[in-house]
Write a structure and sequence with these properties.
The chain has no helices and 31 strands. The protein is mostly beta strands and 378 residues long.
C-alpha cells in the first residue's frame, strides 16, 4: 500500500505514518519524515525533480485487540418483593435484569413452598399483576430472565392474601379441634399523640374465628388522653362465669408490663379444665390460672395469633399506633397435628376500618414467626 503526492517546500519536515485496522483491532507504523530539497543556486524552479523519501516507515508489531463479546448473560438487578393484599385485590410482582441481548422474562409460581415451580402462561413482562384469591395465600413467585448467553432467576417472593376483619390482624389456623396454642412476642411501644384515646392488644388464643367464644391471654396498651398504659390480661370471652365473659386485667403491681418486655403465653385444655398462662421473662414473673370449661363447651375450631383493637363500651376502639409486633414460636396442637402455624390450614387477617389499620407480613420460613404492622387508627 502506498501514498503519493507532489511535494512543496512548505511540506519539508512533515511526518507521515500508516494506520492498519480490522475488526480485531489496529496497528500504526512509525512516522516517516519528508525532506524537500532547495532549488539549485542561480537557477529557477526545479526542473521536475521528484521528492525522495529518506526513510521508509517500518511496521510496528502490536498486540491484537480482542473483539468484544457478542453479548452478556442476564444478571438480576431488581428482586420481586413480598406482597400482602386482601382477597379480590390486585397483586403485582416486579423484577429486572441486565444482559445483552436484552433478556426475555417469564414468571413462575410455586404452591408448595418452592418445592416445584410452574410457568405462568402469558406472564412475559417485567411486572406480573393479577387478582388475588384466598387459595393463593402463601404462593411464591419468581422471574426467570434468559438470552442467548444464559439465564438468571430471581429470589422467590411470597404472596399473602388476607381476609378482612374489623378488629383482628394476624394469623388464624383452622381445620381441626384445637387443644393448645402458644406464642411469644415483645411488647411494642405505642405512640400516643396528645389528647388522644386509643387501644391495642396482642394475644394468642383458641376459638373466635368460627365460633362465639374465645379463650385467650395477652398484653394491652392504651393511650388515655395521650398517655400510654400497659398491662397483661386473660379472657374467657363469652363465659359469663369469668368476669361476665370480659377481660380480666392482671395487677400492674404484681405483674407489671413495659415496652420491650419479652412475653410468652399459652392456652390449653385437658379434660374439662382450661389453663391460661402468661409470663414476662424480662421481669421474671409468670401467671397461670385453671378455669372449668363452660357449658356448652367451646368449639375449639381455630387457633389465633392476633393484634387487635378491642371493644370499649360495646364499640370498636381506635387502634393505638403500636408500630409493629413480631410473634415467634407460634404453634398449636389439634386432634391430628402439633406444629407451627404452617402445619395447619391457615389464613392471614388484616384489620380494616375506613382504611387499612393493621396487616401481617409473610410467615418466616420456619412457619412459626411473622410481624404485624400498624397503618392507621380508624
Amino acid at each position: 500500500m502506498s501514498y503519493s503526492f507532489t511535494a512543496s517546500s512548505v511540506e519539508s519536515g512533515y511526518e507521515y505514518r500508516a494506520v492498519f485496522s480490522n475488526s480485531a483491532g489496529s496497528a500504526t507504523t512509525k512516522a516517516a519524515t519528508l525532506t524537500v530539497a532547495a532549488p539549485a543556486s542561480g537557477g529557477g524552479p526545479p526542473s521536475g525533480v521528484a521528492p525522495q523519501v529518506t526513510s521508509e516507515p517500518a511496521a510496528q508489531a502490536v498486540a491484537a485487540v480482542t473483539a468484544p463479546a457478542s453479548g452478556g448473560a442476564p444478571q438480576v438487578t431488581s428482586e420481586p418483593a413480598a406482597q400482602t393484599v386482601a382477597v379480590g385485590a390486585s397483586a403485582t410482582f416486579t423484577a429486572a435484569a441486565s444482559g445483552s441481548p436484552t433478556p426475555s422474562v417469564r414468571w413462575e409460581v410455586s404452591s408448595d413452598g418452592g418445592g416445584s415451580w410452574s410457568e405462568l402462561a402469558g406472564a412475559t413482562s417485567t411486572s406480573y399483576s393479577f387478582t388475588a384469591g384466598s387459595a393463593q395465600n402463601g404462593y411464591e413467585y419468581r422471574a426467570v430472565f434468559s438470552n442467548s448467553a444464559g439465564s438468571a432467576t430471581t429470589s422467590a417472593a411470597t404472596l399473602i392474601v388476607a381476609e378482612e376483619s374489623s378488629n383482628w390482624s394476624g394469623y388464624v389456623a383452622t381445620g381441626g379441634t384445637f387443644s393448645s396454642v402458644s406464642g411469644s412476642w415483645t411488647v411494642p411501644s405505642v405512640t400516643c399523640p396528645a389528647d388522644t384515646t386509643t387501644y391495642s392488644s396482642q394475644w394468642i388464643g383458641i376459638d373466635g374465628d368460627e365460633s362465639d367464644t374465645v379463650e385467650q391471654d395477652g398484653t394491652g396498651a392504651s393511650c388515655l388522653s395521650g398517655t400510654p398504659h400497659y398491662d397483661a390480661w386473660y379472657e374467657m370471652y363469652g363465659d359469663a362465669a369469668v368476669n361476665g365473659g370480659a377481660e380480666v386485667a392482671l395487677s400492674s403491681s404484681s405483674y407489671p408490663v413495659s415496652p420491650g418486655d419479652a412475653m410468652t403465653a399459652s392456652v390449653s385444655i385437658a379434660g374439662s379444665t382450661w389453663t391460661l398462662a402468661i409470663a414476662d421473662t424480662t421481669r421474671d414473673w409468670n401467671y397461670s390460672i385453671g378455669i372449668a370449661s363452660p357449658s356448652p363447651a367451646p368449639a375449639r375450631s381455630s387457633a389465633e395469633w392476633i393484634a387487635e383493637r378491642p371493644e370499649v363500651g360495646w364499640s370498636l376502639s381506635a387502634l393505638s399506633d403500636f408500630g409493629s409486633v413480631s410473634f415467634t414460636g407460634a404453634s398449636a396442637t389439634d386432634n391430628a397435628t402439633s406444629g407451627p402455624i404452617s402445619a395447619f390450614s391457615f389464613q392471614p387477617l388484616e384489620m380494616v376500618g375506613a382504611t387499612l389499620l393493621a396487616a401481617p407480613g409473610a410467615l418466616a420460613p420456619n412457619g412459626e414467626s411473622f410481624t404485624d404492622s400498624w397503618y392507621a387508627s380508624s
